[in-house]
Known about the structure:
Helices cover 53% and strands 0% of the residues. The protein is mainly alpha-helical. Helix 1 (43-68) packs parallel to helix 3 and helix 2 (84-114) runs antiparallel to helix 3. The chain is elongated, with a radius of gyration of 30 Å. The relative contact order is 0.16.
Amino acid sequence: xxxxxxxxxxxxxxxxxxxxxxxxxxxxxxxxxxxxxxxxxxxxxxxxxxxxxxxxxxxxxxxxxxxxxxxxxxxxxxxxxxxxxxxxxxxxxxxxxxxxxxxxxxxxxxxxxxxxxxxxxxxxxxxxxxxxxxxxxxxxxxxxxxxxxx
Length: 150
């Protein structure tokens, strides 16, 4: 009489790794068994993007200070009928919009750097956005003063 042979137990895959994902049993990557590699960090791009983001912060601060002076557009309104609400809106836009543009720029650049994609161009586009936001504030303020020229 012989005893039946027992098969050794098969170890189960860890519960944290779902089938079909890297690290799971039987996973076949795009290279025939290797999981996909992460993109390399572009150190020069990250350094340039951070330096340009700091420059954008300085530019936003300067634009905001310039926006504070838009309230002086109401100086010639003694003899003229000016639209005080347009002047006030332009003044507030001049102080707030550069910081909004900077915040959007910073978030977009950080997301691109985390995803390891080129990000140096985002602060450059953000600088243009900051300047355009200040110009928009100038236009709105000038629209409140009759006879003003921009």
